[in-house]
Design goal:
alpha/beta; Rossmann fold; Dehydroquinate synthase-like, alpha domain; 2 domains; two-stranded antiparallel sheet; binds nicotinamide-adenine-dinucleotide; binds zinc ion
């Protein structure tokens, strides 16, 4: 509906404002499977062909170097052979570097854009990314910017990308040293989480990603938090049923926030799921990504949980429970870089607060806890309490 509004300032007939309004409903399937490319597993094919089963759909694969192998190529080949009436692979899978390397140089995005161009991938063809969150981000950006958006399917292969980033609507790469500076909001065509990929993942990555599940449980879901406590040993030893449930429940909670949180494209000042992240982003940058995102998030969770106690929001003792959980999962709660200071003697980590606010614009909004499963937004952080929380964490980590 268009509403004609007369400009209240000018009485001239020619000065008017018309409000343009429309909304676009988004939907995409998120699959949880094993053996996504076993020829008799129909899910990938169904996700691609969905509305047009009668035609053959053109697909271009981009694969993370960390898991690319002749074996994976052969599996995808066999899958396409079995579904050749509906799927066409337009070239051999393209391999790109994994991790931040692919995000640190726009040349990689350009190479993917060139492949999309060379192979005439149009808005009814598909670019399929198989990889960790970094590769999904870079491929997502390339897909979103060619022809103003070609269909993009994500096959996340790390715990973190399956339980958090892969089901979301964002992509980005780093620019001039600034994390996620160049990117778009672009919901995918489909997401396919295949738990089998996790078996190849280095143990460090496999553990680090669990912290995103702890994060979302702490702010959204008390029952899931208790489940994590009860299943910490099973998770730390990668028992399949436990790992699958952790990934699935965490992904569902992230999906719920995007669909029902009221701000899927982050127009406001809050990032409600970014509990523990203001210091985590800073710590990652300060250590030049030697501390993995998930590892930094575990430390950020520990810090903000203790801060919540010091701020009088969370009962004393609850922070101890959270730390026991993180540690029994194999996550650390302290890193010496937390003590770095700027030239003026200020704790460097505190600039993370300003950077967190700058990224979004608007008022500072930080999520804290009022219970184990209950997030609470505040708009001010007391530097003195951050110092106290850090002293406590450092002492607590030494006592181990
Ligand atoms: N778009 C978003 O909403 C969003 C949200 C959170 C994080 N992210 C981004 O995700 C990135 C982190 O992603 P991540 O934690 O998934 O790790 P990652 O993509 O950095 O990958 C970590 C390493 O694991 C390798 N790897 C990936 N899958 C593998 C597998 N199955 N077997 C063996 N090796 C494998 C990669 O090659 C890489 O070396 C960051 O760049 C972060 O900014 C994006
Ligand atoms: Zn995160």
């Amino acid at each position: 509906m268009q509403t004609k509004v007369t400009d209240p300032v000018s009485s001239s007939q020619s000065s008017t404002i018309q409000w343009q309004r429309f909304s676009v409903p988004y939907q995409y399937p998120v699959g949880f499977v094993r053996g996504a490319f076993d020829p008799d597993n129909p899910i990938f094919c169904q996700m691609v062909v969905r509305d047009e089963p009668e035609k053959r759909h053109r697909c271009l694969f981009v694969v993370d170097e960390g898991l690319a192998s002749p074996d994976l190529d052969a599996k995808i080949d066999a899958y396409f052979a079995a579904h050749s009436d509906q799927l066409v692979m337009i070239d051999r899978p393209m391999v790109v570097p994994g991790g931040e390397t692919v995000k640190n140089d726009l040349a990689h995005v350009e190479r993917i854009q060139s492949a999309i161009h060379t192979h005439a991938v149009d808005r009814h063809s598909y670019v399929i990314a198989i990889g960790g969150g970094a590769v999904l981000d870079a491929v997502g950006l390339a897909a979103a910017t060619c022809h103003r958006g070609v269909r993009h399917i994500r096959v996340p292969t790390t715990v973190l990308s399956q339980n958090d980033s892969g089901v979301g609507v964002k992509n980005a790469v780093n620019f001039k040293g600034i994390k996620n500076y160049v990117g778009t909001f672009a919901p995918p065509w489909a997401v396919l989480n295949d738990f089998d990929f996790l078996d190849q993942l280095p143990i460090r990555e496999r553990i680090a990603g669990i912290s995103e599940a702890v994060k979302v449980a702490l702010i959204r879901d008390p029952a899931f938090y208790l489940w994590l406590e009860r299943n910490a040993d099973a998770l730390a030893t990668f028992r399949p049923e436990a790992e699958e449930y952790m990934v699935r429940r965490s992904a569902e909670l992230h999906m719920h926030q995007i669909a029902h949180g009221g701000d899927p494209f982050e127009m406001g000042s809050a990032r409600p799921l970014d509990f523990g992240h203001w210091s985590a982003h800073k710590l990652e940058a300060m250590t030049r990504h030697h501390v993995r995102h998930g590892e930094a998030v575990a430390i950020g969770i520990a810090l903000d949980t203790r801060y919540s106690v010091l701020a009088g929001l969370l009962p004393e003792g609850d922070e101890e429970r959270v730390i026991v959980l993180l540690e029994s999962l194999g996550l650390r709660i302290w890193h010496p870089a937390l003590e770095s200071r700027d030239a003026d003697g200020r704790l460097s980590i505190l600039t993370g607060l300003e950077e967190f606010q700058e990224h979004l614009g608007g008022a500072l909004t930080i999520t804290l806890l009022t219970g184990l499963g209950q997030g609470h937004e505040v708009h001010e952080i007391d530097g003195k309490l951050v110092h106290q929380a850090m002293d406590w964490l450092k002492a607590r980590s030494r006592s181990e």
